[in-house]
Amino acid sequence: MLYSIGGILIPFLGTSLGSSFVFFMKKNMSEKFQKMLVGFASGVMIAASVWSLLLPAIEMAENQGRISWLPAAIGFALGVGFLILINRLADKLESRPNGKKLNMLLFSVTLHNIPEGMAVGVCFAGFLAGNAGISLFEAIILALGIAIQNIPEGAIISMPLKMEGLSKKRACLYGILSGVVEPIAAFITVLLINIVVPILPYLLAFAAGAMIFVVVEELVPEMHEGKKSSLGVIGVAIGFIVMMVLDVMLG
After folding, report:
1. Residue 105's closest CA among 42, 171, 169?
2. Which one, of 111, 183, 172, 174, lies nearest residue 147 by Cα?
3. Tell me, what's the pLDDT at 217?
4. How many whole angstroms separate alpha carbon 119 and alpha carbon 146?
5. Is residue 132 predicted with pLDDT exceeding 50?
């Protein structure tokens, strides 16, 4: 049980580490680096949506004896639709032009962390049950893989917040808070394993839809602001490759 509790907290440590990168950031960020960062965030989120969320959702649905693509399609559509509603509500409530974009980014990454935490919870619940064929080593490897993936996600929360005028401590704190939902979701999943597992494919795809919406609606337009440059596209490619490699190598 102690090993399981420690393992569940590992992904949160990855988010916290990535959020701390803001302390190494200069006071003013150049426009070129900003485009690279936004592009990198987009690439990370696109790759995470595919390899961390949609593909596992399809595989999990198939293992449950369902039509493999159906939960992924439904969950993805619901995620996009939900973010459209949130975006319209934010348009009415948000006064700062960049505030809505940052709030949406924070919300989508936080939302993405929930099914990841649930996935970790499922593995450790299987280990604790003793009859699911999941070893402690396999559960910890999954938690470590998600933790490494969370490092750039923590950075893409805290660094833009610093650019918008928040102190480094507050920006780091918000980045860390975006990862708090992971261990909470993991613990709840362990307690409610029989209820959560059947709908987990929908939840994974829901988070993917939310992330893709933010990339298309908020981040891609920002990459094209100001002087024309290919740096944003380069950032997308780097972020996508990094996240893809991490997902494939670490499972």
Report:
1. 42
2. 183
3. 82
4. 10
5. no
List the domain boundaries for the chain: 2-18+35-250
pTM of the model: 0.69
HEC sequence for the chain: CHHHHHHHHHHHHHHHHHHHHHHHCCCCCCHHHHHHHHHHHHHHHHHHHHHHHHHHHHHHHHHCCCCCCHHHHHHHHHHHHHHHHHHHHHHHHCCCHHHHHHHHHHHHHHHHHHHHHHHHHHHHHHHHHCCCCCCHHHHHHHHHHHHHHHHHHHHHHHHHHHHCCCCHHHHHHHHHHHHHHHHHHHHHHHHCHHHHHHHHHHHHHHHHHHHHHHHHHHHHHHHCCCCCCCHHHHHHHHHHHHHHHHHHHHC
Taking the C-alpha atoms of residue 232 and residue 36, their distance in angstroms, rounded to an integer, is 5
184, pLDDT greater than 90:
yes
Contacts of 43 (CB under 8 A, 6+ apart): 235, 236, 237, 238, 239, 240, 241, 242, 243
Judged against a pLDDT cut of 80, whether residue 78 lies above it is answered with yes
Burial annotation 195-223 (CB, 10 A radius, 16+ → b, else e): ebbeebbbbbbbbbbbbbbbbeebbbebb
pLDDT digits (tens, 9 = 90+) for 4-23: 888 899 989 989 998 998 88
Cα gap 1→18, rounded to integer Å: 27
Tell me how far apart the alpha carbons of residues 153 and 205 are, in angstroms, rounded to a whole number: 18
Instruction: State the amino acid at position 92 in one-letter form.
Output: K
What confidence tens digit (pLDDT) does each residue in 239-251 have?
Answer: 899 888 877 876 5
